[in-house]
Amino acid sequence: MFKVISQTNDFVVIAKNADVNFHDEGIPGSGLFSKVKEYILGEDSSQELYPIHRLDKMTSGLLVFAKNNISAKIFGELFEKHQVEKYYLAISDTKPTKKQGLIKGDMAKSRRGMFKLMRTQKNPAITQFFSYSMENKQRLYLLKPHSGKTHQLRVALSSIGAPIIGDPLYSTNSKTHSKVPADRGYLHAYALRFEFLGEPYEFIFPPDEGDFFQAGCLADMLEQLNKPWLLNWPKL
User: Fold this and answer.
1) From CA 69, how far away is CA 50, in angstroms rounded?
2) CA distances to 6, 14, 78, 190 from 203, in Å
3) DSSP 53-80
4) Are 37 and 12 in contact (CB under 8 A)?
5) CA torsion sign, 149 to 117 to 17 to 141?
6) What kind of fold does domain 2-230 have according to CATH?
7) Which residues are annotated as catalytic?
8) Composition of the chain by helix, strand, coil, percent to 5
9) pLDDT at position 177, please?
10) CA distance linking residue 143 with residue 187, whole number of Å
11) Distance between CA atoms of 90 and 166, rounded to whole angstroms?
């Protein structure tokens, strides 16, 4: 269900597998958080683990958990002030109208648990992106969200006509979905960067699940994207 990437006295960074629920979903102890807590704390009931942020079931990649109340509060402030940089990878089978840009708009509930992007800007979801050509007419998207709204990246790419391959909600009309069922939803939390108690931290974890994520061309691309914060991102 997960791999431990790094651990300090204050927090632990893990890489979540795809198709894993964050919460228990009706079966006590079955969710990701419960499993990470069991692994990290074992039988020590005097300790606690604090979830800081979450990933959708289909999404793989990096997550941070705080190991004490003080750390949880610090991370809460960092996320609230958007001082944790998050970078994601996604694959679509649709070429966008432009290779890079900004996707911005309010999000509203739609049907069947879905959300949609609005043209209004009262409390917008904000996402920067680059896209790169892959084999089989697919495109790799490097995404940088500046807000943390439910389904934000999935809705963002769907809104520009490039839904994520394998997304059970938003890719039902995608070309790949209609021909060959995808082996996973192709969204991955690729990198995290933040400063904690005056010390900088950078974490990168390339996707290791999914046939399309294992394409030979992707490894070459990720060598060029191994420090995504250094790219010349589109203006906000």
Assistant:
1) 8
2) 9, 10, 16, 8
3) ----TT-EEEEEEESSHHHHHHHHHHHH
4) no
5) negative
6) Pseudouridine synthase (3.30.2350)
7) 56
8) 20, 30, 45
9) 44
10) 10
11) 10
Residue with tokens 């609230």, as numbered in its chain: 80
Reduced to 3 states, what is the DSSP secondary structure of residue 134?
A: coil
Q: What would the two tokens of residue 42 be?
A: 């074992």
Instruction: Return the amino acid letter for 160.
Output: I
Sketch the domain layout of the chain as residue ranges: 2-230
User: Are the beta carbons of 107 and 118 closer than 8 angstroms?
Assistant: yes
* pTM tops 0.85: yes
As given in the structure block, the two tokens for residue 124 are 């917008």
Amino acid sitting at position 176: T
How far, in Å, CA of 97 to CA of 129, rounded? 12
Residue 172 tokens, joined: 């039902």
Digit-by-digit pLDDT tens for the chain (236 residues) are: 999 999 999 999 999 999 999 999 888 888 999 999 999 998 776 789 999 999 999 999 999 999 999 999 999 999 999 999 999 999 999 888 888 999 999 999 988 888 999 999 999 999 999 999 998 889 999 999 998 888 999 999 999 999 999 999 998 754 444 455 789 999 999 999 999 999 999 999 999 999 999 988 898 899 999 999 999 998 88
Nearest residue to 156 (alpha-carbon basis) of 111, 112, 102, 120: 102
Which is nearest to 52 in space by CA: 75, 35, 27?
Answer: 75
